[in-house]
Amino acid sequence: MNKVLHLLFVVVVGGCVTPVIPLPPPNPSLMSLTADTNKGEIVISGKASDPHSDALYYFYNLRTGYGTIALAQPDGSFTTQPLEAKDGDKLDLWTSRFGEDEPSSVVRVIVRYSGSLERTD
Q1: Which among 83, 79, 86, 105 has a CA at the least distance from the CA of 94?
Q2: Which of 76, 96, 106, 108 would disulfide-bridge 52, Cβ 3.0–4.6 Å?
Q3: Contact (CB, 8 A) for 100 and 20
Q4: Given this structure, which CATH class describes domain 26-119?
Q5: Which residues have C-beta within 8 Å of that of residue 62, sequence separation ≥ 6?
Q6: pTM of the model
Q7: Contact between 93 and 104 (Cβ < 8 Å)
């Protein structure tokens, strides 16, 4: 009887735990950038992306050691603050959500002043 109650407890409690679905990696093809060549800065904008609604987007410049964080809108779109970056700089980008321990996988991109982020893989 004791084993049955223990098994029932494990099933009930285990069934109440909602699995955490990790965020997919950010998609650079849904992003564009505007470059201010005089200041050596870029602003990155992302199109709507449902899986990334209300996510935090992290951009880290490997050359400068600086980055920026943008909060996506409910539709997944976002715009960053200006980030120091030269044409050809490499950025690491990833996403996460408030209260979740696991961020998405990191995507490495190359800044192109022509207006795009080019994946390195």
Answers
A1: 105
A2: 76
A3: yes
A4: mainly beta
A5: 89, 90, 91, 92
A6: 0.81
A7: no
Q: Give pLDDT, residue 121.
A: 80
**Spatial distance between the Cα atoms of 12 and 20, rounded to a whole number of angstroms:** 18
Tokens for 111, please give them.
Answer: 């800044």
Alpha-carbon distance of 88 to 103, in angstroms, equals 26
Q: 87: which 2 tokens?
A: 């044409």
* 42, 112 contact by CB (below 8 A): no
Burial of 24-60, coded b for 16+ CB within 10 Å and e otherwise, reads ebbbbeebebebeeeeeebbbebeebeebeebbbbbb
Residue 116, judged by CB atoms within 10 A of its CB (0-12, 13-18, 19+), counts as: middle
